Amino acid sequence: MRGLRVVARRARTPNAATVIRLIASWCLSYPDDEVLGRVDLMRAALEEQDDPRATEPLRQIVDHLDGGEPDTLRRSYIELFDLSKRHTLYLSYWSDGDTRRRGTSLGEFKQAYRDSGFLVDLHGELPDHLPVVLEFSARADPVRGVELLEKHRAALELIRFALLDAGSPYAGALGAVCATLPSPSPPDRATAMAMCAPAPTETVGLEPFDPRLLPIDPTRA
Question: Which candidate, 194, 198, 176, 197, places its Cα nearest to that of 186?
Fold first, then answer.
């Protein structure tokens, strides 16, 4: 499954923001049986929160998960998030694209997880996958987790705008997460894009030309 990934070594008392981020993590995860089995738990947890900016959008997603046919929910999730980079949940892709620089960004996520003192099981996902980052922020290290989310705030906002354009209920999860962060959301997509680094053009695996790598001409040896 693509749900729980963080194994706590010590108890941590959740606050409202961490509860919202944990529920958003589950809502944005692949809707397998375990995630769908948490619908009642998520709904009960949201009833205990008092910030409608975050709770109302998440309630809509929970209702969407509760009322949908499982196979249809799963197909739709794959089409939305896995088959289109327009809505990808891999945060560093939005700033780094498929470049060498992305490896450095992924390393920063891994280092944050190692430094937390928690076991973070990625279950085959890259460390910048948003549900992983959200659960890390909720269950392991809220301070470092918020730092990661704020550093990649432009990605969060661009995903949100893309999902809004698609008319997807999942957009509410991004809005709820952004409502828990200390900085305000940008007013429009152009502002969010300006927060991002310039789009990279380098391609992974592209090496600079080195004439010493040309085959040796035996007639000139």
Answer: 194
Q: What SS3 state is found at 7?
A: strand
Q: Which residues share a beta bridge with 90?
A: 129
The CA distance from 4 to 87, in Å, is: 22
**pLDDT score, position 192:** 80
- The model's pLDDT over 45-74, given as tens digits with 9 standing for 90+, comes to 999 998 888 899 999 999 999 999 999 999
| Contact partners, residue 107, CB within 8 Å, separation at least 6 | none
Question: How many CB atoms lie under 10 A from the CB of residue 36?
Answer: 15
Residues 6+ apart with CB under 8 A from 178: 153, 156, 157, 160, 185
